[in-house]
């Protein structure tokens, strides 16, 4: 069984611990990061890919030169779950909070 979708109040509380993340619509959260260089951005993506693979939970990632955009949603549950919040915290650890 999948992790349940967070209620609006639960998501508000969770996002208070993730100040660089924002709601995107009703079913995802996102963060944009500016890397020092293109290769630094690729290194961030590689580290995040390893963390995502270990968690068996994968973000949508858009790479535009030094700008990285991460979007998290538990598609099988239809919205943001605790898996997304945990991965957002891990992404913050990797790229800097």
Write the layout of secondary structure elements.
Layout (H helix, E strand, L loop, with lengths): L7 H8 L6 E3 L3 E7 L3 H18 L4 E5 L2 E6 L9 H14 L2
Antiparallel strand pairs: 1-2, 2-4, 3-4
Helix pairs in contact: 2-3
Report on this structure:
- The protein is of the alpha+beta class and 97 residues long.
- It has one domain (8-95): Transcriptional coactivator/pterin dehydratase (Gyrase A, domain 2).
- Helix content is 41%, strand content 22%.
- It has 3 helices and 4 strands.
- Strands 1-2-4-3 form a 4-stranded antiparallel β-sheet, with helices on one face.
- The N and C termini lie far apart (31 Å).
Explain briefly what this protein structure is:
By secondary structure, the protein is an alpha+beta fold.
Number of helices: 3
Q: What is the structural class?
A: alpha+beta
For the record, the count of structural domains works out to 1
Using the coordinates shown, work out and report the CATH topology. Gyrase A, domain 2
Major sheet: arrangement of strands: 1-2-4-3
Average pLDDT metric: 95
Number of strands: 4
Biggest β-sheet description: 4 strands, antiparallel
- Give the overall shape: globular
Distance between the termini: 31 Å
């Amino acid at each position: 069984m999948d992790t349940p979708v967070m209620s609006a109040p639960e998501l508000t509380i969770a996002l208070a611990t993730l100040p660089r993340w924002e709601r995107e619509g009703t079913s995802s959260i996102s963060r944009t990061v500016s890397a020092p260089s293109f290769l630094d951005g690729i290194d961030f993506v590689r580290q995040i890919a390893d963390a995502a693979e270990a968690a068996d939970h994968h973000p949508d990632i858009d790479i535009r030169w030094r700008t990285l955009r991460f979007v998290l949603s538990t598609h099988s549950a239809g919205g943001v779950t605790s898996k997304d919040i945990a991965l957002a915290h891990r992404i913050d650890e990797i790229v800097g909070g």
